[in-house]
Amino acid sequence: MNEFEIIKQYFTTDSGRKDVIMGPGDDCALLQMQPNTLLAVSTDTLVAGVHFFADMDPVALGHRALAVNLSDLAAMGADPCWVSLALTLPEVNEAWLRGFCEGFFELAEYYNVALVGGDMTRGPLSITVTVHGSLPRDRGLRRNGAKAGDGIYVTGTLGDAALGLQQQLGKVTVDEQHCEFVRTKFEHPHPRILAGQALRNIASSALDLSDGLLGDLGHITAASSLRAQLELEHLPLSQAMIDTVGLEQGWQLALTGGDDYELCFTVPEMHRGQLETALAHCGVKFTRIGRMVAGEPGVELLAEGKPYKLTARSWDHFRSGE
């Protein structure tokens, strides 16, 4: 099959969205924005051997490729609308393509996201996804809105995806009862779209956790010119984490492991009651893990009220030695 046959066979679909005037097949997609809305756009590239194992199940990879991008829309509180996909393949493998499309389009259909274009070429396996969302004007969640006294919160539990990766690398032994849980956390992240939308009028700042809580929360402190105080005993750790590596190593994975794709956000005390109601309606568990304070931007770690020193750092593609 040539490039255009592959696109026609696997990537030309009708999502049914009426705001897609022209989808795949022309030089550009033509999309209709609603009045008084903003366009939210995010792009991520996944490279074999860096972001995923080259032999990863293609169904899981298709899901993951879209999910990690939708997580960025969730962090902004946006409604997912459209996606474009640039796929680089070393060869045409129709079984792999079928699996990838199964995972990709199942998640796209769940969130009513239309594939509107992209590109395909030959080369080392990599996947670039650009998602587009919409949100009411002046309602987007940003990183620079936190205020001193705001509580710091996260959804879900932290570090489980990193634990799943450690399991696949053979660095930890996970009890059989937890194996499927940690594997799913790594391979099938769940973007917190509904939670992000619910936080639009409640949170003062937000982002998604892709590189580890310590580094990602640092972006909020830098953008808001504040300091964060984290109470480590309040970090939400799963039973799988506690049973496998214990409390302190669990803290380390939660702080620096990455790939959680949960939301981290700050909320003023006056909105605390609203927060509990809003996220309860979404069915999303959340935990208060600290607070924002005046001071030099950065993250201060406390264990039972005392300073705690952590040697590991969050992921950075371009740090020396990584």
From TrEMBL:
Binding site residues for Mg(2+) 3: D27, D72, D208
Positions of substrate binding: H51, D259, W315
Chain residues that bind Mg(2+) 5: D211
Enzyme class: transferase
Domain called PurM-like N-terminal: residue spans: 25-133
Transmembrane segments: none
EC number, as in UniProt: 2.7.4.16
GO biological process: thiamine biosynthetic process; thiamine diphosphate biosynthetic process
PurM-like C-terminal domain span: 147-296
InterPro entries: PurM-like_C_dom (IPR010918), PurM-like_C_sf (IPR036676), PurM-like_N (IPR016188), PurM-like_N_sf (IPR036921), ThiL-like (IPR006283)
Keyword DNA-binding: no
GO MF term (any one): ATP binding
Keywords tagged on the record: ATP-binding, Kinase, Magnesium, Metal-binding, Nucleotide-binding, Thiamine biosynthesis, Transferase
Residue sites binding Mg(2+) 4 per the record: D27, S42, D72
Highest taxon of source: Bacteria
Positions with a binding annotation for Mg(2+) 2: D44, D72
A Pfam family per the record: AIRS
Pathway involvement of the protein, from the record: Cofactor biosynthesis; thiamine diphosphate biosynthesis; thiamine diphosphate from thiamine phosphate: step 1/1
Binding site for ATP: G118, D119, R143, S210
Catalytic activity: thiamine phosphate + ATP = thiamine diphosphate + ADP
Positions annotated to bind Mg(2+) 1: T43, D44, D119
HAMAP family: TMP_kinase (MF_02128)
Family in the record: Belongs to the thiamine-monophosphate kinase family.
Protein purpose: Catalyzes the ATP-dependent phosphorylation of thiamine-monophosphate (TMP) to form thiamine-pyrophosphate (TPP), the active form of vitamin B1.
Note: Reaction mechanism of ThiL seems to utilize a direct, inline transfer of the gamma-phosphate of ATP to TMP rather than a phosphorylated enzyme intermediate.
Protein name: Thiamine-monophosphate kinase
Source organism of the structure: Oceanimonas doudoroffii
Record gene name: thiL
